[in-house]
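Hi support team,

I submitted a single chain yesterday and got back a structure, but I'm not sure I'm reading the token output correctly. Could someone confirm the output below corresponds to the sequence I sent? I've pasted both exactly as they appear in my results page.

Thanks,
R.
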Amino acid sequence: MLIDTGFPGFDGRDAERIILAAKDAGIERLDYVLITHYHRDHVGGVVQLAQRIPIGQYLDHGANVEDSATAREGFAAYSKLWAGSNHRTLRPGNHISIGAVQLEVLASAGNVIGPTGPGKLASNPLCASESTPPEDPTENAQSVGILLTFAKFHFLDLGDLTKEKELALVCPHNPIPAVDLFLSSHHGLDVSNSRALVHAVHPTVAIMNNGPHKGGKPAAWEVIHDSPGLQDLWQLHYALDADKAHNTDEQKIANLNEGCKGNYLKASVEADGAFSVLNSRNHFSRTYKTNAGR
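Hi R., thanks for writing in. Yes, this is the structure output for that exact sequence:
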């Protein structure tokens, strides 16, 4: 399964990076491509990707809801790919099995899973300190969010879900178990990554999928960095608009400058739930024990 496809254009740059990652993993076909929402940095590369590798099924939240040219164009190009082929609209509570890997849909199309989610029903005391966020009419709030489970390992990816839907998901009760790896919501923007969400799921490790000038906001960085039990925060790029105190150690940052080569962070999971993160820029890696039972 591939989640999101990057930007269009750039001579197929993002599609080619995905193909290289697939070759490295020994993959010649994608059983699933999951599009979290229809902003161009998430859906834009799908047409170029489909020209390079077979895709079995397309998964998404349903029709575009955002009245913007880029969202309309992104959805139109994407929907032509699966017209008459294998396509599934996801809803909270849906499950997908890929061998020993289980995915549960926690959010989709502006809806979130109820208290019968994958974790024990627990009151979330962090909700009381959260102010009411504004309503978000964009595609971000429609994002498909998933919990991936492999043995004792849990990975949380909520796409670009914003605070209104984050709080709906974890307040007043949090259905999400403690997670081993958390992908920062919305590239590390502070309109996402609410304390009531991040601290409630107790990530062992977080990866911030920011750009040099996209995401990586100090307020969101602090929420993630200060999460109880967090052992490491990794970043895809050095956040050039933040100070050094709001960037992680350079050895855990894949790209330090603008005009970078697109170095990647690679997470690998063992059968017992232990996992490691590798920085392709400098080959620095670290291994962690699973968060199970915490």
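A quick pointer for reading it: Residues 92-294 form one domain. Let us know if anything else looks off.

Best,
Support desk
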